[in-house]
């Protein structure tokens, strides 16, 4: 609900079945953009874990050992931009587990900004960038930069369910993420 961007919806059961088959066979290519806490060490890497439902908080997922109800989850990532205390990253999930990207980023110590469930913060504020309510910050309409998880479904590629032609859809970053990146560019750039 708090992730912006592209989503695919089938118009009828036949189309739904064909699209679902592509997702199951992992023929659908998905790309997300996220702003995460901290500086990610590697320019590119992957996260390959098992995930299962949290034993006490059933609405959450966790990284767990293989076995039982655990399911494999694989995410490739690539750093787009590093800031002093944040990283803007491209995420490409190979599997489609519930909350996979959010759980994986938390697992590697770089929770998605403003992720209330897996990040511990409900928003990102200017003071988190080291800026107090000074002249620069006062120019902004609000101290709050983003109040939802900084995760955006950027690109989706699949084959048309009727014609079989390859299709690619991209959604530009929403205003809240653009504004957050602009603030990071202004106040968090590497020296």
TrEMBL record:
<comment type="similarity">
    <text>Belongs to the pseudouridine synthase RluA family.</text>
</comment>
<dbReference type="GO" id="GO:0000455">
    <property type="term" value="P:enzyme-directed rRNA pseudouridine synthesis"/>
</dbReference>
<dbReference type="GO" id="GO:0003723">
    <property type="term" value="F:RNA binding"/>
</dbReference>
<protein>
    <submittedName>
        <fullName>RluA family pseudouridine synthase</fullName>
    </submittedName>
</protein>
<dbReference type="GO" id="GO:0140098">
    <property type="term" value="F:catalytic activity, acting on RNA"/>
</dbReference>
<dbReference type="InterPro" id="IPR050188">
    <property type="entry name" value="RluA_PseudoU_synthase"/>
</dbReference>
<dbReference type="GO" id="GO:0009982">
    <property type="term" value="F:pseudouridine synthase activity"/>
</dbReference>
<dbReference type="Pfam" id="PF00849">
    <property type="entry name" value="PseudoU_synth_2"/>
</dbReference>
<feature type="domain" description="Pseudouridine synthase RsuA/RluA-like">
    <location>
        <begin position="1"/>
        <end position="107"/>
    </location>
</feature>
<dbReference type="InterPro" id="IPR020103">
    <property type="entry name" value="PsdUridine_synth_cat_dom_sf"/>
</dbReference>
<dbReference type="InterPro" id="IPR006145">
    <property type="entry name" value="PsdUridine_synth_RsuA/RluA"/>
</dbReference>
């Amino acid at each position: 609900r708090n992730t912006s961007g592209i989503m695919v919806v089938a118009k009828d059961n036949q189309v739904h079945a064909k699209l679902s088959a592509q997702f199951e066979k992992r023929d659908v290519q998905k790309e997300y953009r996220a702003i995460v806490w901290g500086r990610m060490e590697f320019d590119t890497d992957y996260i390959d874990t098992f995930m299962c439902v949290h034993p006490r908080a059933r609405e959450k997922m966790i990284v767990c050992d293989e076995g039982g109800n655990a399911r494999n989850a694989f995410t490739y990532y690539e750093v787009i931009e590093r800031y002093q205390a944040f990283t803007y990253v491209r995420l490409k999930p190979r599997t489609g587990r519930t909350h996979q990207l959010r759980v994986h980023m938390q697992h590697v110590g770089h929770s998605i900004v403003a992720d209330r469930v897996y990040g511990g913060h409900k928003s990102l504020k200017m003071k988190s960038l080291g800026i107090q309510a000074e002249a620069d910050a006062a120019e902004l309409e609000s101290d709050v930069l983003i109040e939802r998880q900084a995760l955006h479904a950027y690109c989706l590629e699949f084959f048309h369910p009727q014609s079989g032609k390859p299709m690619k859809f991209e959604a530009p970053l929403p205003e809240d993420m653009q504004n957050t990146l602009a603030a990071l560019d202004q106040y968090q750039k590497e020296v």
